[in-house]
Amino acid sequence: KQWYQRRVRGSLGLTVVVRPGPFLATEWDYGGFPAWLLKDRPTLDVRRNETVFMSEVKKWYAKLLPTLKPYLYNSGGPIIAVQVENEYGSNRPCDAAHYDYLTQLREIYKLH
Predict the structure, then answer these.
(1) How far is 15 from 92, CA to CA, in rounded Å?
(2) At what angle do helices 96-111 and 51-68 cross, to 10 degrees?
(3) b vs e for 49-76, b when ≥16 Cβ sit within 10 Å of the residue's Cβ?
(4) Contacting residues for 63 by C-beta, under 8 A, at least 6 apart
(5) I need a surface site. Which of 29, 34, 53, 97 has the fewest CB within 10 A?
(6) What digits encode the pLDDT tens for the residues 8-43?
(7) Residue 98 CB neighbour total at 10 angstroms
């Protein structure tokens, strides 16, 4: 942590946009979702407010997001933004269900 903070903030003066998922990029296998997520649930509806999927997202955020907090810009860190979703609408239409999913992600972020 100390090396990262000193290197990015101090000598380089760069700011950072963090992309913690749940969806990372189409270039990654299954968008960066872990393989175990579908192991026993091959028809799991991801990137929607599906109960099982959102439960896993909440667990991931509960572990990850608190570790980022000290590095947020308003805490003196280099992180200026946390990207809630990536490639919005690339695999499904931007309909009300997708908007509800994004809203739920934002609300989970705000809890941490």
Answers:
(1) 31
(2) 40
(3) beeebbebbeeebeeebeebeebbeeee
(4) none
(5) 29
(6) 555 577 888 888 888 777 777 777 788 888 888 888
(7) 18
- CA 4, chain centre distance (Å): 20
43: which 2 tokens?
A: 């028809």
Whose tokens are 């439960």? That residue is 55
> Across the chain, which distance is largest between two alpha carbons, in Å?
47
Q: How far apart are CA 5 and CA 70, in angstroms?
A: 10
Alpha helix (H) ranges present in 29-95? Answer: 36-39, 51-68
Write down the pLDDT at residue 44: 86
* Residues written for the chain: 112
Tens of pLDDT, residue by residue over 46-103, are: 888 889 999 999 999 999 999 888 888 898 888 899 888 877 666 666 778 888 888 9
